[in-house]
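Protein: AIG1-type G domain-containing protein
Species: Sparus aurata
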Amino acid sequence: MLITHKKHAARFFCCCSENSEKYHHNVIYHHNLTYICHFLSSVTSECCKQKGDVSSREVTIVDTPGLFDNLQADDTVKREISKCINMSAPGPHAILLVIKVGPFTAEERNAVRKVEEIFGEDAWKYTIILFTYGDRVKSDFEQMVNSVGPELQEILRKAGNRYHVFNNLKVNDRGQVLGLLEKVEKMLADNGGQFYSNKTYMEVVEMLNQREAELTELYQQKLAEEIQSVELKHKKMLSEVQEEHEKVEKRLQSELQEVKRYYHVLESGVRHVVEQMVPTDSMEDILKFHETLKLN
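Structure follows.
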């Protein structure tokens, strides 16, 4: 059963073509989450990761909107693909291949080809075709599926004829979300309850863990150095102004507390930062990226 007392986790890897819009996020999450990553705005070419609770299950969606656009530079596409794999490590429980109801487009064909290149043939066992804009189908949807062209029929065959339909005009219909999760549950059971993984994912997990540990250790070292620097500065101040001893001591504790808070925020975001990196990025690149983030 989907609804249990114990909260489970599921990672979804959503593969969208250039023109696929991000309504599937809204349908899945609805008011459970704010519209992070501008889900209702124009299509972006960057990977996006979002978590939320749906039917007692923690769902993580890694989205690739516009990622397979032929107009994108190869280096940009490779970097975004690397980030998407980082974000979905140690591997997705389900790969959702998002396709609009209607003619099978060149962009969608390219997206399917890229998915096969990235994940390999074994990934089809973890794939569900997610048709959006189901409201456009006025007749029986199964009849429509049976009448589609040979290319889409072959894709459905590879995915074990697993598909789901989202009606974008009925975001309040939570039954269609539960229906998708039920199909994911069945697919997971058929796969022995295991998420998809391969050599690339195993290497990525090792890389992420190593860089996370390195960055955490670096920040802990910097924190110790900052604490020592602050204490020395205030020790000097105390020796110079004995009459303001209490004021200086109070300032010392406040500054130490702020330094600790600063590095605690940095450490709490380490995993997010390393997910944005690729293996060729240096530690200097990682630090430079992290320092540009707005700290709360």
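Remarks: The two ends are 40 Å apart (CA to CA).
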